Amino acid sequence: MPTKQPSIKAKIKAIEKYLPKTILTNEQLANEFPSWSVDKIYEKTGIKKRHISSEKETCSYMAIRAAEQLFKNHNILPEEIDYILLCTQSPDYLLPTTACIVQNKLNIPRTAGALDFNLGCSGYIYGLSLAKGLIESYQAKKVLLITSDMYSKYINDKDKSVRTLFGDAATATLIEAANSEHEFIHSFIFGTDGNGAENLMVPHGGSKEPISELSYQEYEDSHGNIRSPKNLYMNGAEILTFTLSNVPKSVNLILDKAELKKENIDRVVFHQANKFMLDKLRKKIGFTTEQFLISYETYGNTVSSSIPLGINNALDNETLNSTHKLLICGFGVGYSWGGCIIESIG
């Protein structure tokens, strides 16, 4: 008779980050766009500055730096990692997989699995779910979940609508197996609505619309923003409508699945889109300002990195501790959304 395996649960051990050294401030943006003052930019976005990657800072470069911080600060050896999950929408190449490059540069064993997955603002939740599945099905013991996005590579310098919002960042999370009956990461919900795909996209550069002469032809929209088809486009009004419609329902689904009420949640970290959107969400759902953690002010919208960056920031400034019951929710490009409960980090 086969020996019964011990009960294994997936747990977040640690989170670290990498931020490019170049900082884009509201003062710099106001100098470039005289019709937008420093106060107006802050009033509209709640963002004071954002980190912007340099030419040498690729997806893999930032991912490796974040992982090195994780290894150094938490005494983790590369040879302990048996799976790499890398969430990005700005990979080094169309192929090969950036996670394979990261594996080689970090000297992670060749016996490790490695894959990229293309998701934006909901990506961290999907990554946690994949890691949980790998660990609790005994396929891996230590999963390195990396987020590394640099939307600045896609943004036209003359498009103030998105340039004021987005920043670049990478994070590295270690998810490991714990011998326990307790669920440390649980109550996942997911959602997808590809009908909204065109409201946040880079139109040219894929197989449907390869880069051509047309890709470089700039045009001006009704708000004076200039971009070309190879640049990032966002329909902010439609994104807001989608978010306010879907996220409150999703939060209720998470709470129902976990058999919790809002007051049972110690802290909440949503995708850090911007102040206007998050203020509306917090009030509509009914979380308190103490529960609702924000970090967009100094980072901007860092896409897949915004939730782990927010968690790392809150742990550092002690507004979140390892025993808090944490609800996280990501939403945006795709449309794609998801959320879950995290208990006990560390």
TrEMBL record:
Q: What is its EC number?
A: 2.3.1.180
Q: Which domain of life is it from?
A: Bacteria
The record ties this protein, via InterPro entries, to: ACP_syn_III_C, ACP_syn_III_N, Thiolase-like
Q: What region holds the Beta-ketoacyl-[acyl-carrier-protein] synthase III C-terminal domain?
A: 255-343
- Whose protein is this, by species? Providencia rustigianii
Which GO BP terms sit in this record? fatty acid biosynthetic process; secondary metabolite biosynthetic process
Q: What is this protein called?
A: 3-oxoacyl-[acyl-carrier-protein] synthase 3
Q: Key word Metal-binding present in the record? A: no
Please name one Pfam family that this protein belongs to: ACP_syn_III_C
